[in-house]
Write a structure and sequence with these properties.
Chain A is an alpha/beta fold and 233 residues long. Chain A has helices at residues 44-51, 74-84, 100-111, 115-128, 144-157, 174-189, 201-206, 227-230, and strands spanning 2-12, 17-28, 33-37, 59-64, 67-68, 85-88, 162-166, 193-197, 209-214, 217-223. Chain A has a six-stranded mixed sheet with strand order 6-7-8-3-9-10, with helices on both faces. In chain B, α1 (2-15) crosses α12 and α2 runs antiparallel to α10. The chains are: A alpha/beta (233), B alpha+beta (437). Chain A binds chain B through residues 45-46, 49, 52, 54-55, 74-75, 77-79, 81-83, 87, 89-91, 93-95, 97-98, 106-107, 109-111, 154, 158, 166, and chain B through 1, 4, 11-12, 15, 339-340, 342-353, 429-431, 434-437. The structure holds adenosine-5'-triphosphate and magnesium ion (MG).
C-alpha cells in the first residue's frame, strides 16, 4: 500500500536548516492499522503530510499503491489525494462557515460526483458516525467529539483506501477519545488502511503495529498485536 | 465547478459584510470615476455621421491672408465665403452638396393659439437632407429653384411641427417666419446628431435646427448669419451686396463623393476654382484646400480637448489606486481564510482549484463593484447635467456600450486585483495551516 525508502525532508529558513525526516523508511500493508508515536518535533506530522501527498520529500522514494508519486504534478497528486486518501487532524479542521452536510460535500465536489451521488454518500457517512439529525448544523454547534466524528465522516465520504490521522484524539477527553478510536477501528475492520499519529500510549497499543519516530527516523518496527486480537477491543 | 465556486464566493462575501462592502466600494468608486469621464469623452467624440464617413467631406478653401496665420490645426479657415459657396454649388460632380449656415427668427401660425417664438433656422441648399441622411415624415425638400431665387418655402423639424401643428401633416400650410409668409413643404424626422458634426462652429453640442430655409433667400431677407463670421481683410462693406462679395467666411460646405473618381474630379474642380480666383487677385496664399471626412473633422476641430483627455487619464489613475486598495483588502481576506484553503487542499483540491475558487470570488466583487459603479456613474453624469446647461443632457448620458464597458472594466479590474491574492493563497503550503490549532 505505502512504501517509503530513505525519504528525506528538510526545511530551510533564513537561518537554519531543519532535517524533519532523514532516511525515513517504512512499509505499510493494505488493511493495516499502524500507530505512530514519538517525541514532539520528531517528524511525525511531516511523515503524514508526505504520505498524504500534501508535501513533497526532498529526497528518497515513495510508492503509493506501487506508483512512484515523485514525478506527478500538482493536479495528479491532488487527484490521488482526493481518491485514495482521507485526512483527520487534531484540530478537526472543519470549515466553520459550512454546515456538516456542506463540509462533507467538499471532497466529493473535487471528485466530480453528481448531486445525487454526493447526497447519497453524505447521508450514508453521517449515519455511520451517528450525526444524521445534525446535517444542517454548523460545526460550532457541536461538541469536540462530534466535530471529530464529522471530520472522520468527511474523510470517509470519498471511500479512501488510506486514512491518515494526526493526533485525532488530542483535543478530546478520554471518553470521546475512546469513541473516536472505536470508530477508527471499525473503519479499519471494513478494510481501510489507517496510519494514526498519537501521544497516547494506550491508544497506540491498540493498533496492529506501533512505530516510533525519533529524530526524523523510524527507530523501531514492531508488531504490538495480531490483527485478530484487535477484534476483541 | 464554477457553480460551486460561485456559491462559495457568495457565502464567503456574505460572511464578512463590512469587508466585502469596502471592496465593492473601492472598485465601484474607481469604476464610477473612470466611467464618468470616459463616458463624457466617448459621447463627445462619437461620430454621429459614422455611417457616411467614407463618402462625406467637409470642404475648406484657403482663401486667407498671405501674412496672417489661421489659428487652427488645419491652418485653413473652417468656413467658406458666400461667393465661393455659390461658385462651388454650380459643380455637378458631387452626388450631393450643401452650403449652409445658422440663422433664426420669430415664428408663428396665423389664427393659432401658440404664442410666437424664436426658432433656430438652418439656411441651406436643398441637398442637406439627402446628404446628412435626414428622413422626412411628411413632404420633402424644396424645389431646385428655391436655392437660387427667393421662394418662401420652409421645412420643419418634427419637434417644431409638433409645437405649431400638433404633429399633423402640415405640408401646404402657411406660417409666419421673420415677418414673411412661408409655405411648409416638408417635416423631418427627429434629428439631433451629438456632437453636431455637420456644424462644429456653432456649439458642437447645441440643439439642431428647428426649421430649414432655402439658400435662395439671402438677398430678399438680407440674412446675416447667427453663427461665426471671420474676416482678415480691411474691406469696405457698404451694402448687403458688398457683404456677399466679401472675403468674410461664414458658411459651412459639405459634399458627398461616392467614388474615388468623383473625389479625383472634385479635387481638379477645386484646384481650377482656386486658380481662377487667384487670377482675379483672391487666394493670396499657396493653393490649398481641404476635403475632410467626418471622423477626421471631429479630431481636427478638437471636440475633445486636451483637458478632457487629461481628466480621463487622471480618472484611470484613480481607478488604479482603488484597485491597489482592493488588492490589499482581497489579500487580507484570502489570507485570513488560508486555513480553509489548506483543508480543501488536504481534501483533494489542486492548486488550480484553489486559485479558481478565489478568482471567482474576486470576480464577484468586481461584478458587484461594476453594478454599483454604473449607479455612481449615472449619479455623476446626473450631477454634471445639473451643473451644466443645454447640451450636457445628450453628452452626459450612458448608452449600452458604456454600461457594458463599465461592467467589463469592473470585472476585469477585480480579476486583475484578485490575481495576485488568489495566486498567493493557492501557493501557500497547506501543511502550515493544518498543523496550527
Ligand atoms: N514548514 C516548516 N518549516 C520549517 N520547519 C518545519 C516546518 N514543518 C516542520 N518543521 C520542523 O520539522 C520538525 C518536525 O516537525 P513535525 O511537525 O513533523 O513534528 P511532530 O513529530 O509532528 O511534532 P508534534 O508531536 O509536536 O506534532 C520540527 O523540528 C519542526 O520544527
Ligand atoms: Mg505533529
Amino acid at each position: 500500500m505505502l512504501k517509503m525508502h530513505n525519504i528525506r525532508k528538510s526545511y530551510r529558513t533564513d537561518t537554519i536548516e531543519t532535517h524533519a525526516l532523514r532516511d525515513f523508511s517504512l512499509e505499510v500493508n493494505e488493511g493495516e492499522f499502524v500507530s505512530v508515536t514519538g517525541p514532539s518535533g520528531s517528524g511525525k506530522t511531516t511523515f503524514l503530510n508526505i504520505a498524504g501527498l500534501l508535501e513533497t520529500p526532498t529526497g528518497g522514494q515513495y510508492l503509493l499503491d506501487g506508483e512512484d508519486v515523485s514525478s506527478l504534478n500538482d493536479n495528479q497528486r491532488s487527484r490521488l489525494r482526493n481518491e485514495k486518501i482521507g485526512f483527520i487532524f487534531q484540530g478537526f479542521n472543519l470549515i466553520p462557515d459550512l454546515n456538516l452536510f456542506d463540509n462533507i460535500d467538499v471532497p466529493l465536489r473535487y471528485r466530480g460526483f453528481n448531486a445525487k451521488e454526493r447526497k447519497k454518500r453524505i447521508e450514508k457517512v453521517l449515519e455511520q458516525v451517528g450525526l444524521s439529525a445534525r446535517a444542517r448544523h454548523l460545526p460550532a454547534q457541536l461538541s469536540g467529539g462530534q466535530q471529530q466524528r464529522v471530520a472522520i465522516a468527511r474523510a470517509l465520504a470519498g471511500e479512501p483506501r488510506f486514512l491518515l490521522a494526526d493526533e485525532p484524539t488530542g483535543n478530546l477527553d478520554s471518553l470521546m477519545a475512546r469513541q473516536v478510536m472505536e470508530l477508527l477501528e471499525f473503519i479499519n475492520e471494513w478494510g481501510t488502511t489507517i496510519v494514526m499519529v498519537t501521544h497516547d500510549p494506550d491508544l497506540a497499543r491498540r493498533a496492529h503495529r506501533n512505530i516510533q519516530v525519533v529524530d526524523g527516523q523510524v527507530s523501531d518496527l514492531q508488531r504490538t498485536a495480531a490483527p485478530t486480537a484487535v477484534e476483541i477491543a | 465547478m464554477i457553480g460551486y465556486y460561485l456559491s462559495l464566493a457568495i457565502r464567503s462575501l456574505r460572511s464578512t459584510p463590512i469587508l466585502s462592502s469596502l471592496m465593492v466600494a473601492a472598485i465601484a468608486v474607481g469604476v464610477g470615476a473612470a466611467m464618468t469621464t470616459l463616458t463624457l469623452n466617448y459621447m463627445m467624440s462619437r461620430n454621429a455621421l459614422a455611417e457616411k464617413d467614407a463618402v462625406l467631406y467637409a470642404v475648406q478653401l484657403d482663401s486667407w491672408s498671405a501674412t496672417q496665420g489661421v489659428d487652427n490645426p488645419s491652418e485653413m479657415p473652417w468656413q467658406v465665403t458666400y461667393q465661393d459657396a455659390v461658385s462651388l454649388l454650380r459643380s455637378d460632380i458631387p452626388t450631393h452638396q450643401v452650403a449652409m449656415h445658422l440663422w433664426g427668427g420669430p415664428i408663428s401660425v396665423e389664427g393659432s393659439e401658440i404664442r410666437p417664438f424664436v426658432a433656430g433656422a438652418r439656411v441651406t441648399s436643398r441637398d442637406f437632407f439627402a446628404l446628412f441622411g435626414v428622413d422626412f415624415i411628411y413632404g420633402g425638400t424644396w424645389s431646385e429653384e428655391a436655392d437660387s431665387s427667393p421662394l418662401q418655402q420652409i421645412v420643419l423639424s418634427e419637434e417644431t411641427n409638433e409645437k405649431l401643428f400638433g404633429g399633423e401633416n402640415s405640408v401646404g400650410r402657411s406660417l409666419n417666419f421673420n415677418g414673411a409668409l412661408f409655405t411648409v413643404v416638408g417635416v423631418t424626422e427627429h434629428w439631433q446628431p451629438s456632437p453636431k458634426v455637420h456644424d462644429l462652429n456653432n456649439g458642437s453640442f447645441n440643439n439642431s435646427a428647428e426649421v430649414f430655409l432655402p439658400f435662395g433667400l439671402h438677398r430678399q431677407f438680407e440674412i446675416y448669419p447667427w453663427g461665426n463670421n471671420n474676416g482678415w481683410k480691411a474691406e469696405e462693406i457698404n451694402s448687403y451686396e458688398d457683404r456677399l462679395n466679401s472675403d468674410v467666411v461664414w458658411l459651412q460646405y459639405w459634399v458627398q463623393l461616392d467614388s474615388p473618381e468623383q473625389v479625383e474630379d472634385y479635387r481638379d474642380f477645386l484646384t481650377a476654382h482656386i486658380r481662377g480666383q487667384k487670377a482675379q487677385g483672391r487666394f493670396p496664399r499657396p493653393l490649398k484646400f481641404g476635403l475632410t471626412n467626418p471622423s477626421e473633422w471631429l479630431q481636427l476641430n478638437e471636440v475633445v480637448d486636451g483637458d478632457d483627455r487629461m481628466l480621463s487619464w487622471l480618472s484611470l489613475a484613480f481607478l488604479l489606486v482603488c484597485l491597489v486598495n482592493a488588492v490589499a483588502l482581497l489579500l487580507a481576506k484570502f489570507l485570513r481564510k488560508a486555513p480553509e484553503a489548506g483543508v480543501r487542499r488536504a481534501l483533494g483540491a489542486s492548486r488550480n482549484a484553489v486559485f479558481s475558487q478565489h478568482l471567482v470570488e474576486s470576480g464577484c466583487v468586481g461584478l458587484a463593484g461594476g453594478l454599483v459603479g454604473i449607479l455612481l456613474t449615472l449619479g455623476g453624469l446626473g450631477l454634471i447635467r445639473q451643473l451644466q446647461m443645454g447640451y450636457m443632457d445628450r453628452v452626459a448620458a450612458m448608452d449600452w456600450t458604456m454600461m457594458i464597458a463599465a461592467i467589463g472594466l469592473a470585472v476585469l479590474s477585480s480579476l486583475l486585483a484578485g490575481l495576485y491574492p488568489a495566486w498567493r493563497i493557492s501557493r501557500t503550503n497547506p501543511s502550515v495551516y493544518l498543523k496550527t490549532q
